[in-house]
Amino acid sequence: MPEDLAVFIDWENIYISTVTEYKSKPNVSAILEKSREYGRIVSATAYADWTDGDFRNAPPTLYSNGISPRYISARYFPGGRSQKRRTNSIDVMLAVECSDFLHNHPQVDTYVLVTGDGDFIPLVSLLRSQGKVVVVIGVSEATSYHLIESADHFISYASLLEEDRAARAPDKEPKKKDADPYEELVRAVETLKRGGKTRVLGQVKQQMIVQLGSFA
After folding, report:
1. Contact, 91 vs 10, CB < 8 A?
2. What is the 3-state secondary structure (H, E, C) of 116-177?
3. What order of strands is seen across the sheet that includes strand 153-156?
4. β strands within the chain, DSSP E
5. If 0-12 CB within 10 Å is exposed, 13-18 middle and 19+ buried, where does residue 190 land?
């Protein structure tokens, strides 16, 4: 019998990341399909200010996929809407409700966090300290590598999309040749070198995830 799992989606974070990197809105069905590989979804919630122009059309799609949109009013720095948003309230509410869910649903063994925000590392640590498995789904290029390191599993959004496309057209696309991990390692180091990034092991691992979709 599959284990029960809960999905918590930082909608603003994943939306901005996918639009920035892929010029498209988050693929909700692909996220859920990947999550189901880890268990039976018993709860799924997405957090955002749904009155915002970028997000107001999302709730019908979320509802149709069994995801509950949780409204959190956005706050702003002095100066009005043209100034930088203060999004901490969304992060705090997601963390609080996830912690409350942990207390009230001890039978749920796996938590899927859809975000790239490193502020959720304490939440990941809390869940794991209670014996829970934590899966993070995020856009690799926009995900904190410390968050990647803190989770039990990290799923690159790019690999998720690739799997979804392959599943939809299995006979039309040629089978992808397995990548040589040694060649990918060299390519990752060269990419970091060109970008002037610090070449620590965590950064190399994150770049490997960007290239391969997953890396253990």
Report:
1. yes
2. CCHHHHHHHHHHHHCCCEEEEEECHHHCCHHHHHHCCEEEEHHHHHHHHHHHHCCCCCCCCC
3. 68-71, 40-48, 4-10, 110-114, 133-138, 153-156
4. 4-10, 40-48, 68-71, 75-76, 85-86, 110-114, 133-138, 153-156
5. exposed
Write down the pLDDT at residue 208: 64
Nearest to 95 by CA among 77, 111, 78: 111
Give, for all 216 residues of the chain, the pLDDT tens digit.
789 999 999 999 999 999 998 999 999 999 999 999 999 999 999 999 998 888 999 999 999 999 999 998 876 665 554 445 555 688 999 999 999 999 999 999 999 999 999 999 999 999 999 999 999 999 988 888 899 999 999 998 988 888 877 777 765 555 555 666 667 677 666 766 665 555 455 556 666 665 565 544
CATH of domain 4-176: 3.40.50.1010
Could you state, in order of their start, the residue ranges of all structural domains in the chain?
4-176, 177-216
pLDDT in tens, 8-63: 999 999 999 999 989 999 999 999 999 999 999 999 999 999 988 889 999 999 99
Residue located via tokens 């599943």:
167
Both structure tokens of 99: 């912690």
Which residue type is seen at 93? M
